[in-house]
C-alpha cells in the first residue's frame, strides 16, 4: 500500500529535524495552541498507536479508546490524556514515536487497503486510516518547522493530503452546519515536482488554482487562505477555502491571517 510508504516517509522527514535537536528544544512552544514540540510528538505517537491497535487488534480497540472518550467527557484535555498514557519526554519520547511509526508502517504496508478499521467515529478503510496518519504528521509537523524558521522541502506524497481535502469538501460545510454548495470547485494545482494536478470538472464556474502544498496547508488549517497565493474564483471556492477542514472531530476554525507562519 503506497499510502503506508508515504506515511513512513513523512514521519522520517520530521524525525530528521527532531533528531538534530537537544532535549530542551522539545519544550519549545509552537503557534498551534502553544503546544510544545513534545506535546505534538506525543499526540502523533498516541494516535499512531491507536491506529495500530485498530488494525492489528480490532477487538481491543473500543476498550482502549473508551478511557479517551470518558476523560474528554469529564473535562480532561487531550494533551492530559495523552501524557498520562505516554509520560516520556524529550529524546526518550522521540525514540518511542520512532518505534511506533515503524510499527504502523509494518502493519499497514501488509494490509488490504479496503479492510475496514474502527475509529473514533465511523469505521474507515485501512488506506484512509494510514493516510490520516500521514496528514496529521505533515500538518502538526508544520508547527515545528515554523517555530524553527525552516521551510519544509515538500514532496509529491502530499497528493494523499490533497485528495483528502478534495474528498472532505462536503464535510467542511456540514460539520459547521452550513449549506453544502451544489457545485464543487475545479482544482488546478502545481505539485512540488512541477506536475499539474487537476480535480473536478474544468467546466465548473468555480475554481481554485495554486500550489498543491498551499491547498494542503489550508485544508489542514495550518495556514489561513489569506496567507497563501491560492487564487479562488466563485463564491463556493472562496467559502470552501475560508472554512476548509479535512480532519474529523467538531467544527474547527482556521487560524487568523498572519498567525501561522514561518518564524524569521
In words, what does this structure look like?
The chain has 264 residues and is an alpha+beta fold. The protein folds into 2 domains: 2-153, dinb family like domain (Four Helix Bundle (Hemerythrin (Met), subunit A)); 159-243, Nonspecific Lipid-transfer Protein, Chain A, CATH 3.30.1050. The protein contains 10 helices and 6 strands, in the order H-H-H-H-H-E-E-H-H-H-E-E-E-H-E-H. Strands 4-3-5-6 form a 4-stranded mixed beta sheet. Strand 3 and strand 4 (196-199) form a beta hairpin. Helix 1 (2-18) runs parallel beside helix 6 (126-147), helix 2 runs antiparallel to helix 6 (126-147) and helix 7 (159-167) packs across helix 9 (212-219).
- How many strand segments? 6
> What portion of residues is helical?
40-55%
Structural class: alpha+beta
Mind telling me the C-alpha Rg?
18 Å
Order of helices and strands: HHHHHEEHHHEEEHEH
What name does CATH use for the topology of the largest domain?
Four Helix Bundle (Hemerythrin (Met), subunit A)
**Total of helices:** 10
Within the largest sheet, what's the order of strands? 4-3-5-6
Any idea what the shape is? globular
Beta-strand percent range: 5-15%
Oligomer: single chain
CATH class annotation of the largest domain: Mainly Alpha
**CATH homology-level superfamily of the largest domain:** dinb family like domain
Span between termini? 38 Å
Secondary-structure arrangement, i.e. CATH architecture of the largest domain: Up-down Bundle
Uncertain regions spanning at least 5 consecutive residues: none
The largest sheet is: 4 strands, mixed
Q: Estimate the mean pLDDT confidence.
A: 95
Amino acid at each position: 500500500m503506497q499510502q503506508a510508504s508515504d506515511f513512513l516517509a513523512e514521519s522520517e522527514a520530521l524525525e530528521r529535524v527532531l533528531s538534530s535537536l537537544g532535549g530542551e528544544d522539545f519544550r519549545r512552544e509552537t503557534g498551534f495552541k502553544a503546544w510544545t514540540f513534545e506535546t505534538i510528538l506525543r499526540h502523533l505517537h498516541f494516535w499512531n498507536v491507536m491506529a495500530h491497535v485498530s488494525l492489528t487488534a480490532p477487538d481491543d480497540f473500543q476498550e482502549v479508546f473508551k478511557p479517551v472518550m470518558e476523560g474528554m467527557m469529564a473535562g480532561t484535555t487531550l494533551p492530559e490524556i495523552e501524557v498520562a498514557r505516554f509520560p516520556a519526554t524529550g529524546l526518550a519520547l522521540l525514540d518511542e514515536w520512532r518505534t511506533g511509526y515503524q510499527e504502523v508502517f509494518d502493519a499497514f504496508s501488509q494490509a488490504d487497503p479496503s479492510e475496514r478499521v474502527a475509529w473514533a467515529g465511523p469505521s474507515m478503510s485501512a488506506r484512509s486510516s494510514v493516510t490520516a496518519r500521514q496528514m496529521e504528521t505533515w500538518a502538526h509537523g508544520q508547527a515545528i518547522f515554523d517555530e524553527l524558521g525552516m521551510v519544509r522541502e515538500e514532496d509529491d506524497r502530499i497528493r494523499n493530503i490533497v485528495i483528502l481535502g478534495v474528498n472532505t469538501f462536503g464535510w467542511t460545510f456540514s460539520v459547521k452546519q452550513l449549506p453544502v454548495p451544489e457545485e464543487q470547485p475545479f482544482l488546478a494545482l502545481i505539485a512540488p515536482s512541477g506536475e499539474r494536478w487537476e480535480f473536478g470538472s474544468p467546466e465548473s464556474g468555480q475554481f481554485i488554482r495554486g500550489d498543491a502544498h498551499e491547498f494542503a496547508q489550508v485544508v489542514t488549517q495550518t495556514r489561513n487562505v489569506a496567507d497563501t497565493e491560492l487564487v479562488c474564483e466563485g463564491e463556493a471556492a472562496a467559502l470552501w477555502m475560508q472554512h476548509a477542514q479535512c480532519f474529523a472531530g467538531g467544527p474547527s476554525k482556521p487560524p487568523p491571517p498572519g498567525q501561522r507562519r514561518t518564524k524569521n
